[in-house]
Specification:
It contains 2 helices and 9 strands. It is an alpha+beta fold. The protein is globular. The model is unreliable at 1-23 and 29-34 (pLDDT under 50). The chain has helices at 2-19, 90-96, and strands at 25-28, 39-46, 56-60, 75-78, 84-88, 101-109, 112-115, 122-123, 129-137.
């Protein structure tokens, strides 16, 4: 009977872990010195989930609208060979608040930038919090 109960509990745990499919992960960051960091980590991928390098990911405090002038660019980073970018926002949010902050992916063109995002991550970011998700591009 004990073995059946243990097997039932183990199976239930496995099922509950595999059925949770979260697009956004939220964690709390604390460095070894005891200070906290607020970060946003984005993985730039295409619709086939392949990582995309060389995309310029920008952060705004207003929504980006296609075919309109870009809002003020707060930060920008280029995706690395694994398609990753990371924004350390602890100092920024301490001065400017939790957001919301809007993230978009672009490619540089001869005329400026081409908006390539299919998904448009938007976050409130609190001190010590890490937000992680993917940004899907065309």
């Amino acid at each position: 009977m004990k073995k059946m109960l243990m097997l039932f509990l183990f199976t239930g745990t496995l099922i509950s872990c595999t059925t949770e499919d979260s697009e956004t992960e939220i964690t709390t960051n604390e460095s070894t010195s005891g200070s906290t960091t607020a970060t946003v980590n984005l993985n730039v991928i295409n619709s086939s989930s392949a990582s995309q390098s060389g995309y310029i990911v920008m952060m705004f405090n207003r929504e980006v609208k296609e075919n309109q002038q870009l809002p003020e660019i707060l930060f920008q980073k280029t995706s690395n060979s694994e398609g990753n970018v990371s924004f350390d926002l602890e100092d920024y949010i301490a001065k400017n608040g939790n957001g919301p902050y809007f993230f978009e992916a672009f490619l540089k063109t001869s005329n400026g930038f081409s908006l390539e995002s299919i998904t448009h991550p938007t976050f409130l970011v609190k001190s010590g919090q890490s937000r992680t998700t993917s940004i899907i591009v065309k």
